[in-house]
Amino acid sequence: MELRDLTLLRELDERGSLTAVARATHVTPSAVSQRIRALERDLGLSVIEPLGRGVRLTEVGRLLAAGAIEVAAVVASVEARLAAHRGSIRGRVD
User: Fold this and answer.
1) Which has the closest alpha carbon to 6: 54, 47, 49?
2) Are the C-beta atoms of residues 59 and 1 closer than 8 Å to each other?
3) What is the structure's pLDDT at 6?
């Protein structure tokens, strides 16, 4: 499982279609489908299911999409700490 896979699931949960996810992430709908299929193979679980002419997240998919939000928050926190570190005064004063 990769962060980009979780991000795709979060986007699907928010946007509701593979085409909208593809547009938002600047990839083709085929690439989105392929990443999701690869994730399902790796997990051995379905993360999407058919819904009419589209798809929706399964319970597992929703769990992973929620996890993507948590991961994004942690990454943002680490980036903020790194930015603060870069902005701090470093070195020795004699």
Assistant:
1) 47
2) no
3) 94
| Percent of the chain whose predicted confidence (pLDDT) is above 70 | 94
Q: Within 13 Å of residue 74, how many CA atoms lie on the same side as its CB?
A: 7
Indicate the pTM of the whole model: 0.81
Cα 27 to chain centroid distance, Å, stands at: 14
| DSSP label at residue 12 | H
Distance CA 60, CA 91 (A): 49
Check pLDDT > 90 for residue 64: yes
CA-closest candidate to residue 57, choices 4, 2, 1, 18: 18
The beta strand positions in the chain, using DSSP E, are: 48-51, 54-57
Residue 91 three-state SS: coil
